Amino acid sequence: MVPPMGSTSHLVAFNTEAKKRDAKWKPAKTADDLGKLREFTFLEIAEAISIFGKNVKQELEACLKLRNGCGHPNSLKIGSNKVAAHLETLAINVFAVYA
Questions:
Q1: pLDDT lower than 70: segments of the chain
Q2: CA angle, corner 67, sides to 42 and 54, nearest 5?
Q3: pTM (global) more than 0.90
């Protein structure tokens, strides 16, 4: 199991990778500092430093796209099974691992 993001080793690696992607990145010291990144960029960095693998990143990107699609006014409709699958993906791959 991967240590939580609060781990010093992951935070150092995360900041190093973030700096490579954005020269203006100021090193994160708290969880709130991580909120300064776009979610997609966060997922790319987490995969790059092996917090999780390619397949988990792809599933989390799909969750992010669904969340964004549902969070803005549009004609998208989803059913309860899709919502349940979305929550299950997050529960298994994020909350159960890092909470």
A1: 1-8
A2: 45
A3: no
